Amino acid sequence: CAASLVGVGSAGMASSPCGDGNFDCGLQIQTRSVEQTLIPLVSQITTLINHKDKLKKTEKTLRAVQRVGQAVSVAVGRFVAVGEAIAAENEDLKDEMGLACFEARRAGTAIAQLTDVSSLEQCEGDGRSTVFSDRTGMVKAARMLLSSVTKVLVLADCIVIKQIISSRNKVLVTLEQLERVSTFQEFVQIFSQFGNEMVEFAHLTGDRQNDLKDEKKRARMAAARAVLEKCTMMLLTASKTCLRHPDCESARINKEAVFQRMRLALEQVIEIVTDTRSGGEARALPVSIYAGIKDFKVKVEGLRDSLYCVSCEAVAALLEALMEKTEDFTDSAYTSHEQRETIIQLCQITRQETKQLINTWRHAQSLKAKEATDEMELSILKTCQSVSDLRRELHRVAVGRATELLKLHSDHLVLQALKASGGDGNLEAVADYAGTLNEHKEQLVETCRLLCHISGTEPLEITCIHAEETFRVIGPQIISAAQTLALHPTSKIAKENLDVFCEAWESQLCDIAILLKEINDVFEGRRGKHSANLKTVKAAKLDAEEQTTIAKLGLELCLLTSDVDSEVERWDEQDHEMVRLCQIISSMAYSMYLFTRGEGLLKTTLDLFHQAEVRQHSFSLIGFLIESVRSAIKSNESPGKDGSIYY
User: Fold this and answer.
1) Fewer CB within 10 Å: N-end or C-end of the chain?
2) pTM for the complete prediction?
3) Could you write out the DSSP letters of every residue in 541-564?
4) How far apart are alpha carbons 637 and 630 in whole angstroms?
């Protein structure tokens, strides 16, 4: 009901409803839907307010004015009815929402009365006011209407936020239950519930992300949701590995890191939707070199308008802060000697030009000049040019470094070596390759930090920070997963777990390639739509309900695959016909799960439908096969080598 409220009368103009100082609602609008709902109302009221005082009162004019007034009144009536329904359903907001609805209805009635000009002469004769005679009354009614309507919308938006918080709380409770399970059967049951709750949470937060007006918040939300999406699969395999090998320390470390990362991502989502942090302080991004250069140039170029808008000391301090940040480039062990010398030289040139600017600036102030002198104008141009040259060089170094690293890691040799060493049970080799992976991780982390400095927009800065954190976390997780496999080289689930973390690393490298393109587009003035590392489904093909359904089915398929693999792994006779058929069906189910994530070999819905039609009879056997395998194991038809039944 709260979501439907913001859809009432959502078509309209492209301008912001709160941009007009005459109708400042005094409430901060966070979402596009609230803003878009207000736009047509503002348009209609503006039409009434801005009519010409000496407008000829023709019959056509009278009908037009009355038509607009009636439209506003009817729209307010429908709107208030929905608002009152929301108030009845939400006791904690009932009084506040009820008052706002009452004020909106009263303002709508006042506007209807003021625009009731069908009998204009009679109105003027008996002293009644109309839109033509009481402009002040119309403005007052319009203010009240916009203020009350906005308040209703913001209160309705609070309910949406409460839904997201409630959904997060359910996920957290189930997450804690998953962390404490001790049997595989219990885990499968709870994970199924967890999957449904995560789908609901993803749906709510996805809608919220698309609705947010602030680009930085949208980028942060996208980053947090990407973590949750990828960690869901990691949680599945890491937990299964721990259940299979409960005494393995590396498996426990691997699992705990996944749970911790999911909790942090869930907390970040709530920080974004509530616009607060758990500690109460505001979240601030570290100032990048790009932002520092932009601020510096604004201050310098502002001297053309006023010599006294900023102090010489403030400009000098901005420059020194900027020069200090370039040390991230010059102090890096991966920056070549030539690149380091070029950056240092450009910094010196910028310092010299700024010093000359300050000298000419102070001289102009001593002469009581009211505007920049010709000498000062030349210094402004040279200073801005020098800092632009510095930015261009830093961009070249950062992008060049990232491009080289992507080429270097494109073959994924270290990951393949870790998989092979783990599968061979070679702990010494795993340790050697873990050291190499750590070096690669440090290179990628530092490269992401440099890209953040030159990214060009705050959303891209946030994506760079997300990439840096991802490499920092996943590197050690890959190593712990490889150590687990080396300790249990015949464990299929340990191998699957390592594969999942390696895939996450490879996926993040692909995201870096996309990020590089976006950074270059911004630098060259071809700013496109920021992807924020999320694979999105085209709304033209699937509506929200269909997306939610297929996501739930995808998680169920993933669980089904896991269940089948676990049962099949109990069989010693891996060439048995039933085992072979189970493996085929399991592979098909996993392919369909990957399709719901936008991954895998199935690229279109046509591919999905074709595979479903071809193998439809096979899927009907899945439940039967699982039960058959379980029955066979219970009757010891296929025991372990020592006569035991094992996972």
Assistant:
1) N
2) 0.74
3) T--HHHHHHHHHHHHHHHHHHHHH
4) 10
